[in-house]
Write a structure and sequence with these properties.
Strand content: 5-15%
Distance between the termini: 93 Å
Largest sheet: 7 strands, antiparallel
Strand order of the largest sheet: 4-3-2-1-7-6-5
Shape: globular
Number of strands: 14
Helix content: 25-40%
Length: 547
Amino acid sequence: MEFAELIKTPKLENVILHRPFNEPVECALCITSHQLIASSRRTERDELWLLHSMVDVVERKSYGNGGSITLKCKDFRIIQLDIKGQEDFSNVANSIECLSNLDDPRLLFPFYYPCNFDIVEDGWYAFQIEREFSKIKLFSDAWRISYVNKNFKVCPSYPEAVIVPKSVSDETVIGSAAFRCLGRFPVLSYLHKSNKAVIMRSGQPMVGTSSKRCKEDEKLIKTVLGSQKRGYIIETRTQNLAQLARSKGGFEMEVHYPLWRRVHKPIDRHSTLLDSLSKLIEACNDTSSSADKFLSKLESCSWLSHVKDVLMCACLVAQCIDQEEASVLVHGAEGMDSTLQVCSLARVILDPDCRTVQGFEALIEQEWLQSGHPFSTRCKHGAYTTPSSRTREQSPIFLVFLDGIYQIYNQFPCSFEFNEKFLIMLFEHAYASPFGTFLENCVEQRRQIELHKRTVSLWSFINRPEMLEEYLNPTFEPNNSVIWPSVAPQSIVLWEGLYLRWSIPQTLRTNVLSAITELKNYEKELKVKASKLRRHLLQLAIKNKPA
């Protein structure tokens, strides 16, 4: 395909650009194969560079001789272009619509990105499993690297090398994989240094309506316990959903896994989350709302409830590991979404290394990129897509995880080497990026299109000293302890630096939110006082009631 076929009007003068916190400005518009560039003759600051892949929705409003094009972006920005001339208006809108919806990843900007910096450390090879395993061997000799998934023949969504119990053979692993959803057999996610308890993750067991069992799977999971008396299976679906799934999958039968206690901690996924995010962004963009109305919308969208649910589940896993010294197996259905959220957040709570820049990047590589989270599918669209144009597979799973990290960071701001900007940067690159790191859905797909040869890694760009400086936390003090975030409703706060950054200027944001918070607390106090007054009046009425 030739990009020129999709660009009927490559350059256009006298376009009026509207964007957040800027006065409308007349500019020249240039549409390239991968970017939209709007530049003003007035000053260099009035310039916009926007990747087509960042555009979520293109809306048109035609009038007389021309029209307005509204670009709603995956990073929650809204940009408007006023264009004179019906033909140019139509050509520009058609071009952006086509170029923002390319399906072949090899046509995206990462494959055309002109690397203009010296690569000090190649990010494609910075987080090899052998390096992570060398840290585990310092504290336990009960594990090994298995290459049972060579050429991705056992589990297409896993990497070729995984960490499994040392005493378990590859044949046992293969038997377990045949019993687990999508072949996602239990693998090591984290080993707690102080007591050797571990977090494992997997897909659901394919028990079915006939209550099938698998001796290899039972052996693998039993081996994980070692000398421990018990373990926990944290199921991220409700018991009813797990029961309903038995036609395709199911859950571990206690009679076959007697040393493991199953706990259901339901976490919403897929379309529920995207609906919730859409309502959240709609509320954040409505700057005309009163404080009462905004708080009502914030509560009704349930976004903070979703974040709280994931964080509560992660805290439960961390509690099992650190306080009960019991190992944990986490899974939902496929083990690609809520499972990864919970394991990753639990690791950040437990492991101080995951709160450093390098450690957090390694966490994202190991728990997300190499573990088969389908980034290309989940992040294809964002908050602005209409329900009719969404698919069930599109969901802000990774954003919920980042929001969970922000909640912990907000409560322990000195325990993280990186800052809030670092998390926002990761969110943006997951949805649209000049780098190849978040392209495709698993390691096998990335290998097939040779991402490591043909694109630059985000980590290569970020980890240069001159770039990293922007993302470091100046208040960082290494904290080697387990940190326990509060999951009380009042402790889970709106991430204003992300969700409000295009609707309320940063200088006003803190004052607005503090005022809303104060109002919310005042309302609670009034309710408490009213309740006490009602009780007092009731007691007086009973006391003075005629005999």
